[in-house]
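Data deposition worksheet. Section B asks for the primary sequence of the deposited chain exactly as it was used as input, without tags or linkers unless they were present during the calculation. Section C holds the resulting structure in token form. Section D is free text for depositor observations; keep each observation to a single sentence. Incomplete worksheets are returned to the depositor.
Section A, Depositor: J.P.
Section B:
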Amino acid sequence: LRSRAAKRAEREGHGTAEAGGTLPRHRFGMRFLHWFNALSWVLLLLTGTALMIAPSFALFGTGFPGVVSGLFGGQGNLILFHALWGLLWSAVIIPPFLYYKHGGIEAMREVVLTRDDIRWFMYKPMVMLGIGKHELPPQDKYNAGQKVFAISALAGTTTIIASGLVMTFHLGSSEVVATAILVHKLAVGLALVGVAVHITMAAIMKEERPALISMIKGDIERRHAEHHSSKWVEELAHESKAESAEPVGEKAS
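Section C:
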């Protein structure tokens, strides 16, 4: 027999307080979603920037669009690939996100900024620079920096998809489509800033390496979680104790 706490831990990608050296953190579906999203960003950025052929918008020079266009057999094929992959990206990431995050409610709960998060932003730069002896406040499943990135990613993704649909299907007048093009470019540019910071923190900073590995394997080292996400670990322990305290007849088998 397994308690509801154990089943919920498995369903949510969480471990119980009695877990050993690791805690399950990310289910397979969310890990797939993350890496498919990463692949899509690479492809869409590559093809999207290659479509910026005007000298004033050519981020990588006027020669880059011609090279990429040649690889795809012409500008028409490049536009078609970008549009189709954008639609595929939207179709793949939206349903599982809504399913795993309970219509987005769970995601909103996970990224709510608390007083500890504000203090984290105040102390983190000083800790990184070795100024003073500040101890970072306890954090949830995601730290304050990860929460802000998640908020920007949610807002950016929504804006990029919405404006992309307007551009692809010409939804509205020419003025509406022109506005969508501008919004699309601005949203991508702002999102790139967050992505650059995200990659730097996850791949380069040693203390964030376990979080990156957890997005590959699904598990995270318990000691790392206790140090960096102590409030999350305490929440799991509290839920586990609450479930185990229920009468046996009320537990799900």
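Section D:
Residues 17 and 190 are 39 Å apart (CA to CA).
The radius of gyration is 22 Å.
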